[in-house]
Amino acid sequence: MDPNRRYLFSAGLPRSGSTLLSAIIDQNPLIHSGPASPVWSLTTAAAKLLQSPVSIANLKPAIERRLVSSVIETYYSDRAEPVVIDQSRDWLAHVDLISEFITPAPKIICTVRHPLEILASFVEAIEKSPTVSLIDHAIIGSGQHPTIANRYETHMSPGGPIYISLNALASAFSDGYRDCVHLIDYDQLVEDPAEEVDRLYQFLELEPYQHDFENIVNRHKTRDVEAFGIEGLHYIRKSIGKRQRDYRASLPDDVLARYENWDLWNFETVVGSYDSKRNSLVSDCS
To answer: What's the predicted TM-score (pTM) here?
Structure first.
């Protein structure tokens, strides 16, 4: 591993400001902060090979482990910045992978937002997009017509993006990695970005940098339509400001009743409802 480079990680909840925060941090010329990468998937696949019979029978365990560790270095070999922030929501559920193969002192950024605001943001993006989303494709494939209700079920059910992200967050906390995770609330980020970014720099142990919150540009484009079927999923506005959206007006009453009182900041409740044997979140509201 290159001793002159630090690898940090971002694993925020979907639609919670992770793209916005990444674009802000990427203004710093010493930091590369791009979109979600396949590094987690590649590292996981490589690590699994170490458990194969061929690998176990082999007499080169140190070299094989070095190959796993080199995944992230190879992926970012085209970058010159001394600090790289790799983004994948799966890192929260696999902090041990970071500790074993990348760095013994993981630091993970996690943007969070109330699940109903995330859901309302997803629904709005799906309805505005001229293309059919993966979520709607799945619903149509099951023989249903897409509605807000079944879009909610798909997002919040096992395998859905909101479920997976909340599950990973609970996993990190229940596995004893809470000190490795820095939480940033979406509302606080848009209300006082300077304060939130300053706190983040302290957590990451980086020298302060003067960011421009009135000229934010996402320099790393993604193929949202090809990947997710939603146009403009990672679009961000030039200046920071929260749009006034009342999710209560767009979500069904049964959805509101089920999750509106979920205090996302009470992570003891979230972690307490995490069942590691089933690898799932069991909400008291369900």
So the answer is: 0.81
- Phi then psi for 6, rounded to 5 degrees? -110, 135
pLDDT classification of 162: cutoffs 50, 70, 90: confident
Q: Which residues pair with 86 in a beta bridge?
A: 9
Which pair of structure tokens corresponds to residue 174?
Answer: 């229940």
Give me the half-sphere count of Cα atoms (radius 13 Å) on the Cβ side of residue 184.
31
pLDDT of 163-219, one tens digit each? 788 888 888 887 889 899 999 988 899 999 999 999 999 999 999 999 999 999 887
CA 114 to CA 279: how far, in whole Å? 21
Buried b vs exposed e over 105-120: b needs ≥16 C-beta within 10 Å? ebbbbbbbbbbbbbbb
CA 128, CA 19: separation in Å to the nearest integer? Answer: 19
Distance from C-alpha of 256 to C-alpha of 167, rounded to nearest angstrom: 20
Q: What is the residue whose two structure tokens read 């010493």?
A: 30
Residue type at position 206: L
Residue 238 CA to residue 212 CA, distance in Å, equals 10
